[in-house]
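Hi all, posting the design record for the shared folder.

TITLE: backbone redesign
STEP: 1 of 1
STRUCTURE INPUT:
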C-alpha cells in the first residue's frame, strides 16, 4: 500500500536561514512514526510543514514535494481549513477552548454545518471514547474543559480533533507538560488510535519513541540522518550519529 503522506526534498528557510536541508520521509497509514533529535534540529519545523502551519509564519520559504493521498498538499487550490481537519495537530501545552467539553468536541462539526443534537451527541461520545477520556468527563460534559487536569485536557484536545475524522494526527511533544501517569495514558490512547489513523509524533523522550513508534526518524541540524523501524534503529542503528544520540553522547 502506498504511503498516505510522502515528502521529498523538503527545504525550509526562515528568512535567509535554512532550517531543513532536503528531507525525504514517507508515512504509512495505521502506524506511529516518531521524529527524534536534539533541540533545534528541525523536528517541529518539519511537522508543521505537514499541515501547512508554517504558512502562518512570515518570511518562510518552503520547497519540495508533499503528496497527501497522491495530491499536492501545497497546491494553490488546497483549502487550508479542510486540510487541517484531515491533518490535525496536538500541541505541547493542552489548548482546549474556554468552553465546555461538549462545545470543544463539537466545535469543528458545527463549523462544518452539523447542528443536529442527536448526531452531535453521538460524535461527542465516539470521539471522547476514542480519546480514552469519556469515562472521566461523561458526567460533566457541560463543565469547562479548562477545569480538567492537564492530561484530561490533552485527551479532550485529541477528542476535538478526532470528532472531525482526520486521516493524520500530528503531535508535537504532547506529553512533555504532563505527569508520568497522564503521559502513559496518552501513549496508550495513541497505540489504540493507530488502528485507524496515521500518527506522527515529535518527542524528546526516547523511551516514549521506543514504546509506541513503529518507525523512527532521527534528525540532526536540519537533516534526516536515519529512518527505520524503531526496533531496528534502537538496537542496530546504521549511522554513528544515531548511535551516539541514542546513547546520550549529545543532545
Ligand atoms: N519561527 C521561527 N523563526 C525563525 N527561526 C525559527 C523559527 N522556528 C524555529 N526556528 C529555527 O529553526 C531551527 C529548527 O527549530 P525547530 O523548533 O524546528 O527544532 P526542534 O527540533 O523542533 O527543536 P525543539 O526540540 O527544541 O523543539 C532552529 O534553529 C530554530 O531556532
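Okay, here is what came back for every position:
SEQUENCE:
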Amino acid at each position: 500500500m502506498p504511503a498516505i503522506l510522502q515528502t521529498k526534498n523538503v527545504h525550509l528557510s526562515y528568512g535567509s536561514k535554512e532550517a531543513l536541508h532536503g528531507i525525504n520521509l514517507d508515512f504509512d497509514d495505521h502506524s506511529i512514526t516518531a521524529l527524534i533529535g536534539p533541540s533545534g534540529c528541525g523536528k517541529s519545523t518539519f511537522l508543521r510543514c505537514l499541515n501547512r502551519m508554517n504558512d502562518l509564519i512570515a518570511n518562510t520559504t518552503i520547497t519540495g514535494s508533499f503528496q497527501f493521498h497522491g495530491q499536492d498538499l501545497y497546491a494553490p487550490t488546497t483549502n487550508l481549513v479542510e486540510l487541517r481537519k484531515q491533518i490535525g495537530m496536538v500541541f505541547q501545552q493542552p489548548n482546549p477552548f474556554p468552553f465546555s467539553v461538549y462545545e470543544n468536541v463539537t466545535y469543528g462539526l458545527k463549523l462544518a454545518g452539523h447542528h443536529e443534537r442527536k448526531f452531535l451527541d453521538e460524535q461527542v461520545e465516539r470521539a471522547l471514547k476514542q480519546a480514552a477520556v469519556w469515562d472521566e468527563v461523561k458526567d460533566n460534559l457541560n463543565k469547562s474543559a479548562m477545569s480538567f487536569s492537564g492530561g484530561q485536557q490533552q485527551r479532550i484536545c485529541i477528542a476535538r480533533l478526532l470528532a472531525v475524522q482526520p486521516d493524520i494526527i500530528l503531535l508535537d511533544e504532547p506529553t512533555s507538560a504532563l505527569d508520568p501517569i497522564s503521559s502513559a495514558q496518552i501513549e496508550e490512547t495513541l497505540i489504540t488510535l493507530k488502528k485507524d489513523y496515521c500518527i506522527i509524533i515529535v518527542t524528546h523522550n526516547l523511551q516514549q519513541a521506543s514504546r509506541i513508534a513503529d518507525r523512527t526518524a532521527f534528525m540532526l541540524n536540519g537533516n534526516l540522518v536515519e529512518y527505520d523501524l524503531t526496533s531496528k534503529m534502537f538496537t542496530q542503528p546504521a549511522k554513528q550519529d544515531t548511535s551516539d544520540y541514542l546513547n546520550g553522547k549529545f543532545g
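COMMENT: The CA atoms of residues 62 and 189 lie 33 Å apart.
Let me know if anyone wants the other runs.
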